[in-house]
Each structure stands twice: as structure tokens, then as C-alpha cells.
Amino acid sequence: MKVRNERRVTVGFITLALLTALLAPPVVQAQEPVKVGFIYPDAGTFAQPGLDMRDGFLLYWGQVGNKAGGRAVELLLENKGTAKADEGLTKARKLVERDKVHILGGVISTPVAYALRTYVVEKNMPTVIMNAGADGITQKQKSDYMFRSAFANSDSSHPLGEWAYKQGYRKAVIMAMDFGAGYEQIGGFARTFIEAGGQVIQEIYTPLDAADYAPYLTSIKREADVVAVFYAGAGALRFVNQYAEFGLKGKIPLIGKGYLVDEVILPGLGDNAVGIVTSLHWSAALDAPANKRFLEAYAAKYKRPATTYAEQGYVGAQMIAQALEAVKGNVENREAFLAALGKVEVDAPRGKVKLDAYHNPIHPIYIRKVEKKGNELQNTVIATYPSTSQFWKWGPDAYLAMPPYAEMKGKWAK
Predict the structure, then answer these.
(1) How far apart are CA 402 and CA 404, in angstroms?
(2) CA dihedral for 91, 92, 93, 99, sign (positive or negative)
(3) Domain 34-152+287-363 carries which CATH code?
């Protein structure tokens, strides 16, 4: 009897254990984190833009606890020293082939964006460009794998050309850094300025890392009634200060793309920047709740003011997170993730951002003027072009039938 009772007890325990296992909720195996690779320069002309873009990117992920779509997000940062194309491609290969990232992001310079294009298509790698404005990436070389949180080089140039003509300017000298982004950034201005009825009377292109702009500034034709430029990073700081030193400030109005007077270099420009008008998709002086929250959070975390580059990194993170939420974290379903990325609409610090069919933002463009408020300089918004497309007032087919800006270098001046 004793043996029989022990058997009954043993069988009872086994039965109870089986029932418990069947009725208990399934054990979910912890998923690996989504890996996002991020490429940026930390030396050379574009070092500060690279650091700002990185910090804006990190700020957003910190705000959401490095999670999206129910999964942890692991950020793998690769600084590459310079903005050279070969270095960017080497870093991308490391992130994709060794670190096995699911998504690439960052990228400051146009040459790097173009260099990455073939590689990311070959590897089917979702890539969010957070600064490099290479027009072709979201135009004739559009791919299913490349998206942008920032801008096409020429998208905020088009409104500036129209705006300049409406101010009464008729003869423009255009100047830019002598590389792909320079041709595209200033080309958009030239095209719309000329179409409105203006004339480009001189083109000047300067070496990317030029320290002395004297030979170029002294060659500016004095009959010009406006000088329109593209300079960024340390080049912008040197250019604006030397423009004033050579006595051109106050004689020929200086206008350009927003990077010329980016918030991070305004203190170094001082009164030399006052009155300069630029166009861009963001301003720290933009009076919007989302922008104020972003500015406060960035300043609190990094103890310095936010910049355009920081905003673009932040928006890039927003886009990736929203797409991950849409697919419930299943980034391995690449087709679904890419589709979700193409459909993102985010409430960015700059305003509403959505993507066109070519994966470039449709967003507000602001005409800004540097003003002094108390002891602080700011880019005051003086005009807004809402929901602006990279194709401006043309349809994609008509726009893409025109010569690309990279081929128009040296052909604007008459």
C-alpha cells in the first residue's frame, strides 16, 4: 500500500506540472537589440557639424530609453576623422559586415553619401542620411534603401533665389566651396534667381579647406547688388569674418544658406553676422513648442546651444523610431521596415516632416535674418515657405529633365 500511495503522489505531481506548463503564458525569448550604426566626422572642417549631428541623435534615443517597437536599440558610433568618401565607406563596411547593424545613419558630407549609395544597395541596408544633401541620392539615383532626415542640397536654395529677386536684387555674385555640395547648394539659388529675372554676373569657387579668402573676396565684381554663398563649418566662420574685414559688409549685402550663420558659430561671428539673410529648414529662434522642448533638452544635456546639425540628427532618430514602432520592432522584415520608413511623418523641431516618393523631406523652409536680441545673436524668421519639396514648383519629371546642378558649375554667369 505504501508503494502504491507514493506512485499516486508522483503521478499527481507530474500531472499538475504538465497542466501548469500548458496553462502558463508562453515564455518570450529576449530579442537581440536593433543595431543602428552611425557615421560622423570628428576632425577637419566639418568636425563640429559631425559632433552636433551625433549629439542630436543621441539626445532623442536617451529620451525614449533607447527603445522602439518593443525592442532595445543599440547605437554603434563610428567617427572617421574627416569627411572623405573612402573613410566613410570603410566605416560603413565595418558596421555592416563585422558589427551586423540593421540600419545605418549619420553621414555629414555629400562625397560620402554618394560613395555609400552603391554599397548600401548591394547590401540591402536601410540608411538614413542625416546631413549630406547630395541631390542625386533622392533624385536620379534614388534607391529603396536610402532616406533622408535633413535636406537635398538645393531644396532650401530655391526659395532663396525667388526671395532675393523680390527684394529688388538684380545682379548677383555667387560663391561656394569647391565640391559637389557647393555646386548643388548655390545652383538652386542661381536657377530660381535667373528664372525670376535676375542675372548671375560672376561665379567664384574656393578650396574646401581654404584659410585665406583674400584672393577671392578682392575679385568680387563691385557692380553686384548681392553676394549669395554656401559656406559651412569652420569655412563659414572664416568667410563671414573676412568678408567684414575686407570692408564688404555694408557695401554688398551677403546672403546664403543657413550654415553660413549656424547657431554654433554665431558667437564667433559677433556683429559681423548681423543683417545676413539665409534660408534653411530650421532656426533656433523658431517659435514652436516642439522646437522649444528640443532646445531646452539639448542645452541641458550638452551645455551648449543646439544647431541645425543637431536637429537633423534628432529627426533622423525620430524617423527610425517611428518606423520601428510601425513594424513592432521587427526590423528583420526588411521590406516592411523600408515601407514604414518611407511613410513616416514626424512632428520635428522644424515643423511637420514627411517624405516624398524619392525619400527626401517635404518640410518648411525659413528665410532668416541675423538679429541681435539683447546680447545674443539669433536667426529671426522673416518669411516661411511651408511644405517645400526638393522639386520646388516643378514636378519631378520636369525637374529631373533639367541639367543637374553639379554640371552647371561655371555656366550660370553671363
Answers:
(1) 6
(2) positive
(3) 3.40.50.2300
206-218: pLDDT as tens digits: 998 899 999 999 9
Q: 146-178 b/e with 16+ CB inside 10 Å = b?
A: bbbbbbbbbbbbbbbbbbbbeeebeebbbbbbe
Q: Identical fold at 34-152+287-363 and 157-285+364-407?
A: yes
Helix (H) or strand (E) holding 37: strand 34-40
Q: Give the dihedral sign, CA 239/241/246/247.
A: positive
- Cα–Cα distance between 227 and 284 in angstroms, integer? 24
pTM, 2 dp: 0.89
Residue 33: exposure state from Cβ atoms within 10 A (0-12, 13-18, ≥19): middle
Question: How many other β-carbons are positioned within 10 Å of the β-carbon of residue 371?
Answer: 15
For residues 267 and 374, what is the distance between their CA atoms, to the nearest angstrom?
Answer: 13
Separation CA 237–CA 265 (nearest Å) = 6
Q: How confident is the model at residue 73 (pLDDT cuts 50, 70, 90)?
A: very high
**Does domain 157-285+364-407 correspond to CATH entry 3.40.50.2300?**
yes
What residue segments make up the domains of the chain, in order of their start?
A: 34-152+287-363, 157-285+364-407
Q: What is the pLDDT of residues 317-339, one digit of tens each?
A: 999 999 999 999 999 999 999 99
